[in-house]
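Appendix B. Worked example

We walk through a single record from start to finish. Start with the input: the chain for DUF4307 domain-containing protein, Microbispora rosea, length 141.
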Amino acid sequence: MPTDEAGGQGTRPVLGTPDDFAPRPARPARLVPYIVIALIVAVIAGGWGYVMLRANGNPSVSADVITFDASAADSAVITFTVHKPADRAAMCRIQALDTKHLEVGSREVDIPKGRSDLEFTERVRTSSQATAVHVDYCDLV
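Next comes the structure step. The output line below is what the pipeline stores for this chain.
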């Protein structure tokens, strides 16, 4: 252990002992920066939650594809169900796609009010052979 032999005090630490130093002053309260950071994080999280909620579109209307037939070269047939509030009308967009996932046909279907769960069978005209048909979206009107 290094010692200060020039002082003649024997073996003593060069930098001193903890008792040789003055006590540290009390640190000021640093709670305010943490509160500001927490508020900023809460605002950002709330904003992101709002964006994610709005990105779902209209969650009160949903459609489920039961079956589709895309064997014809100029049309495709889809059977689907729509779930919505009984007292509201809706509009659904059907989309037909080819092998490259390009749209080859689409159609908008009006869903009347009166019942909440409805089943539809619709034909979509296509510009070329479709390989898939799906319900793109449904919105309340």
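Two observations about the output. The CA atoms of residues 32 and 90 lie 51 Å apart. The beta strands are 62-69, 75-83, 90-97, 103-111, 117-125, 132-140.
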